Amino acid sequence: MSATADTIAAIATPPGRGGIGIVRVSGPAAAEVAEHLAGGLPRPRRAAFRSFRGAAGEALDHGLVLFFPAPHSCTGEDVIELHGHGGPVVMDMLLERVLTCGVRLAQPGEFSQRAYLNGKLDLAQAEAVADLIEAGTREAAGGALRSLRGEFSRRVAELRTALIGLQAELEASIDFPDEGGEVALASPVAPRLGAVQAALEALCAQARRGSLLREGLTVVLLGQPNVGKSSLLNVLAGNDLAIVTAEPGTTRDVVREHIALAGLPVQILDTAGLRDSASAVEREGIHRAWRAAETADHVLLVVDDRAGPGESERETLQRCPAGAACTVVRNKIDLSGGAPGLRPSGATPEIGVSALSGAGLDALRAHLSASAGRDAEAGVFLARRRHLDALERTAAALAAARAALEGETGEELIAEELRHAQRALGEISGKFTSEDLLGEIFASFCIGK
Ligand code: GDP
Questions:
Q1: What is the best residue among 244, 254, 274, 286 to mutate for testing ligand 1's pocket, by most ligand atoms within 8 Å of CB?
Q2: Helices (H), 99-245
Q3: Pocket test for ligand 1, best of 226, 229, 231, 351 (most atoms within 8 A of CB)
Q4: 256 — phi, psi (to 5°)?
Q5: What is the pLDDT of residues 263-317, one digit of tens each?
């Protein structure tokens, strides 16, 4: 697939009005665009102030032209940027004019795709461009920038290199089995495989924390009616979104609110009170509450501190999804006189709060943040689900290789697992990624990116 066959253009700045708007052009006809519209090519990488002219020579706008000749541009092709006045009509006129110069409109993500195809960025870095632009918090932006700079890709590449070394050694011993491969191999391979597994585990942990920064943490509030779930959602979110009444069973649907908890995007879901009910509407609400709980990273089981957790709460805790953290929130301590904050408890942590007075809420926020691994924040990568999948498949293949090594099943099997591991790692940078998946990834970018 040739990336340089045609020339593409798009408005690179967001729709709407702003001081400046930018039309970006990439491909072999980019220089021609500058000739036609702006009276000639400026010197490479130097801004030139020009009039932008229509086909009949009429002025459309004026502003700066920049020329980045191939291969030293963001896409690796000739790139022209026209910086005009940032109004939708001006930008439309400029883009329309550019499209009369043998240029076509870019598809979503096509600039990044060309950068990838021309070796300017690997796939993880191209994804980081989109993630940086879409970052909802400073921490998420920091993680995306680290990936964009290639730190994540470098770590993945180091692991791949180590695996290729191991694999070469094993395969050499398969080719020359007479040279005492089997016995001599077991000792150097095992510790090296162990070292790769440890490095992979560390990378997985950083990527998992990074993925929370991207996807956010999903917190689900469960509990009996009237214990203060909606009030808690409202004080955490700082508004009056969920209806709070003294009447049990108000929240029949699942109410969602997005908040940022010390830089971590958090989605909080308030659910119907869990209790046996004859009402069909309420039963549906309870059903939805459990469905929501299945998506939770963290379940907050809210109780009235005056009553404390009872039989029903113990049952709820048992039904909580295995992958989710669970905390009992003992609300209404202003009425019970209970202590605010984390309390000594059994297996499930308990926190005393009052949604009414605000006591204990900082401790609850800190607890949520800590359980998301925020205390070990430094150096996370804003990983996507796709990256985590690949890392997990790598880990599984390495575990299988280790089992084969320990079971002395023969080098072929070990080498096969190492190949699987290596391939899975290669998917992160795009080395072994299908055209379909590439298309899907870039199509999710927006136009002009
Ligand atoms: P939900 O059914 O669990 O969502 O409970 P709500 O949030 O609707 O609250 C039920 C009632 O308890 C309302 O009258 C709230 O004002 C009250 N309430 C909630 N939290 C507190 C609290 O911490 N202290 C006191 N005194 N009342 C509260």
A1: 244
A2: 110-117, 123-134, 138-148, 151-175, 181-215, 229-237
A3: 231
A4: -110, 145
A5: 677 888 887 767 666 677 777 777 787 787 788 888 999 999 999 999 888 888 8
